[in-house]
Amino acid sequence: MTKEEVFETVKNVVVEELDVDKDQVTLDAKIKDDLEADSLDVFEIMNELEDKFDIQLDVEEGIETIGDVVDFVKKQLDEKDA
């Protein structure tokens, strides 16, 4: 799966979970600051992504932006396929 495909899936999940406009969900968007997500929102987004991608996401510190989420998911997918 390409990074762009991962981003589209992450974007759709974030739009659905946070009820935000698709245009707000960019790679640079900060999840808590720009998209106003709280800890529960982040937990729900991660759970949804685990289900969609069939991976385990042990959320690490340092995930602040949508780009961080995309990179983290992509890394997990690459390791799973290796």
Structural account:
The protein has 82 residues and is mainly α. The chain has helices spanning 3-18, 39-53, 66-81. The chain is globular. The relative contact order is 0.20. The model has no long low-confidence stretch (mean pLDDT 93).
Short recap of the structure:
The chain has helices spanning 3-18, 39-53, 66-81. It is mainly alpha-helical. The protein is globular and about 35 Å long.
Set down the secondary structure blueprint:
Elements: H1 3-18, H2 39-53, H3 66-81
Helix pairs in contact: 1-2, 1-3
Question: Any key phrases for this structure?
Answer:
mainly alpha; 57% helix; 82 residues
Mean pLDDT: 93
> Helix content range of the residues, please?
55-70%
In total, the number of strands is: 0
> Which structural category fits the helices and strands?
mainly alpha
Series of secondary-structure elements, N-terminal to C-terminal: HHH
Unreliable residue runs: none
Count of runs of 4 or more consecutive helical residues: 3
Shape label: globular
Largest sheet: none
Instruction: Tell me the strand percentage band.
Output: under 5%
